[in-house]
Amino acid sequence: MKSRLKFFCCTLLALMSLSSCKKTVDLPQQSNSKIIAYKVPVSDGSISGVIDETDKTITVYVPFYYQLDVIDPEIKLATGAKLSEEVLPIDVLDNKTTYTVTGADKSTTTYKLVIKMQQISPLKVNEVSTESKPVVWGIGYYMINFSGNFNTLDPTKIKIFLVGADNKETEMSYTTGYGPAAVNVLMGATEKVYSIGYVGVPQTLDPGLYKVRVKVQSLTADLKYPVKLEYILPQVDYVSIIAKQGDTFTIKSSGPVFKDLKSITIKVAGQDVQLPVLNYTRTLATVKIPETIPVGTYYPSILFEGFPIINAFWPITVNAK
User: Fold this and answer.
1) Would the pTM of this model clear 0.85, i.e. be above it?
2) For residues 181 and 195, what is the distance between their CA atoms, to the nearest angstrom?
3) Considering Cα of 303, then 308, then 309, then 315, what sign does the dihedral take?
4) How far, in whole angstroms, is CA 110 from its chain's centroid?
């Protein structure tokens, strides 16, 4: 009897303790300064950004086959919320974009945008030099080809740089006097091989060894073996000069640069007559026509120190002063 009474008292005490502990706890009120949807329209629908409310990020995965340079998002906010920034197109390589949302309850939340390019990696680019011998390119030369698994036919997405000993990148050119750069694709033994042509060495660089660095959107590859830059026979662009006695005219190079310009001569009555070079740079020279040159049409010969004479096939027509 005593045992039953003891058990009853213990049970009653436990129930009373549980009853006394019951209390209603209110959850903290959720702010409404939220982005609730982030979408990027694409050709076959849209890409939905992944919104993480814990670390306040919006992650957008962009497949390479859409060939996007920018994303132009559509953003949906919580009811009554406002966005501080204007919604603008964003470069797919951007890593600095944030969005600040102010809710109807006056709370604020800042989200960081993270764009992740989904590309086939690693980026592989075929070597242009060998371990024992670097390829030699002229400064300003513009008919260079590269090949690799670029996976794009858009030349603007393939960025090629020459990197000096100071690790400074100088981008190679993509448009030449022969037209824009072009990308072609062929089927190799195991995968497609893409090639880009009409790539040019910048006219501003100095002779020496340079590393080649290729970037295709978010991917980067450095070639193992360097290239060597040198001065080569300069290019003088075709022009048709019409000037008066005593006037000046200019010649320029859109390719291999001017180096040690020694003379510009024309034949007058069978004799070589020099046209004074007033000044010149790597890409432009200013030349004077002496007042004593007879009226007529002449074809110049141009000499750069250390190179063969260039016999130009463009005319200089001299009119009376």
Assistant:
1) no
2) 10
3) negative
4) 29
Look at residues 169, 170, 164, 138 and name the one whose alpha carbon lies nearest to residue 253.
138
Give residue 71's domain range. Answer: 35-118
Can the peptide bond before residue 28 be classed as cis, meaning omega within 30 degrees of 0? no
Residues 144 and 179 in one domain: yes
User: Strands 296-298, 316-319: parallel, antiparallel or unpaired by DSSP?
Assistant: antiparallel
In a domain, 289, yes or no: yes
Question: What average pLDDT does the segment 27-38 reach?
Answer: 80
Q: Which amino acid, residue 19? A: S
Please identify, among 230, 251, 274, the residue that sits at the C-terminal boundary of a domain. Answer: 230
pLDDT of residue 190: 82
Query: With 90 as the cut, is the pLDDT of residue 31 above it?
Result: no
For residue 119, which of 67, 195, 71, 56 has the smallest C-alpha distance?
A: 67
Better-scored residue on pLDDT, 177 or 283: 283
CATH of the domain at 113: 2.60.40.2340
Closest by CA position to 138, among listed 180, 200, 198, 181: 200
DSSP-based three-state secondary structure for 65: helix
Instruction: Give kind and range of the element (H or E) at residue 7.
Output: helix 2-21
Q: Is 263 helix (H, G, I), strand (E, B) or coil?
A: strand
Q: What is the pLDDT of residue 244?
A: 96
Q: Six-digit token pair at 288?
A: 């004077």
Locate tokens 């966005």: which residue?
83
Spatial separation of the C-alpha atoms in residues 88 and 285, rounded to whole Å: 45
- Name the one residue in this structure whose structure tokens are 């075709």: 238
pLDDT at 1: 47
Choose between 32 and 91: higher pLDDT.
Answer: 91
With CA atoms as reference, report the closest residue to 252 among 271, 268, 235, 265. 235
Cβ neighbours for 253, distance < 8 A, ≥ 6 positions apart:
140, 203, 234, 235, 236, 237, 282, 283, 284
Residues in contact with 221: Cβ distance below 8 Å, sequence separation at least 6, in sequence order: 122, 123, 124, 125, 148, 213, 214, 215
Reference 198, options 229, 172, 175; nearest CA is 175
